[in-house]
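Sequence and fold
=================
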Amino acid sequence: MVTKTVDFSARAVEALHNARLRGSFRDAMDDLIRKRLDHFRDETLFRELSGEGAAIRARALSRLPELLEQLERKLVSNGITVHWAEDAAQANETVLKIIRAHDSRRVIKGKSMVTEEIGLNDFLETRNVEVLESDLGEYILQLLDERPSHIVMPAIHKTKAQIAELFARKFPEIPYTEDVDTLTATARRVLRDAFRSTRIGISGVNFMVAETGTLCLVENEGNGRMCTTIPDVHIAVTGIEKVVEKLADVPPLLALLTRSATGQPITTYFNMISSPRREGEKDGPKEVHLVLVDNGRSDIFANPDFQETLRCIRCGACINHCPVYTRIGGHSYGTTYPGPIGTVFAPLQDGLKERGELLSASTLCNACTEVCPVRIPLAGLINRLRAEYAAPRGNVKDAGSGRSWKEAMAWKLWSAVYARPRLYQRLLNWGLKHRDRLPRELAPWSDSRAMPVIAEKSLHQLVREKSEADQ
């Protein structure tokens, strides 16, 4: 499972001192930003397309319960089995039950952030089910026993040399090389054998179409297509928010997703799955299962202040443009979804007591909001969550858990003093007169900032003196 964020600050400081890691992220993010900009140089075009994408996602969320029921009816009529999972534990048990029903001890898996969220790999492996990742980035991290650091490019924090060293250790029969094509071919040879011999494939889902009962998967490597067509059984796992109303809603979202994520005009593979293999068809699974995961999403949906979070199409643009993420990397967050979207989603999902520290991982520069292809006001949501974190009461789980009684008393004292002008003036004069006795450090604020130098005279005094001099 993902790590908790109680040590977020420590992990962030450690990442800041890792020059190699920072260099990798800086180069990668600059490249992704440049590629995205190549497709959205016309700001008017981006505003029009993102407006359409936001409207599609907002419309789907406004009818979420109804569309999910319609989706289930259509999928079932198409021959796909639908499973509902209230939380991670239920989702994992559902997948395990399907695997055991087919007496299998091995699955091959395409890229899926929801399965990372629920900790599916660890769950299955502790129950003697081998999981083999087929996405190249995920496969590299599986060999390293690491978690993804990015929702689109999971191994983006690794250099070419690091991957070459890894392959040399894991595959000593292959000569050492840093050639990307050779490294990719090596992984492909290993994975192709697994595709042929594994009976169950697991994948994520990018969009679910209620109108037609279609599961859409976006990918570049072809591994997702192989996971969903070669094995006899395909298990798709996704969050309930991924549903859209009509098939016509998909093209605008796909155009936004690929351009925002990797700067591509179109993805290499776009898979549309509407049923198991039918009579006369030459490929495809004999069974298709869809596991619809809630895991806190219904609570977010029910909160009008934060419902917009569920619009996300997981493109990663907010992450790529975030100055905090670029400097500390994805692992510092300790969550499945890093960057601005994770800073909002994780506290809403797990509660502010457990994830509230993440709210400091933002400069509120608004870059994430500006590039979001479905117009999620991420900076505003982060700021609102900060208020919930410090508020005495609120409508988010564990609201007020970041409130310190010392800080609360200090603000009450400040309010009382500031409401009495004469008392405020006396204390201000005393502070100016004895400024050399005031604290020179104020942790944790001063840990990363220089304490301001207190002037000899207040602004009121300076204005008064100037006014007297002018008369």
Residues 405-470 form one domain. The two ends are 72 Å apart (CA to CA). The first helix runs from residue 8 to 16. The longest strand covers residues 233-239.
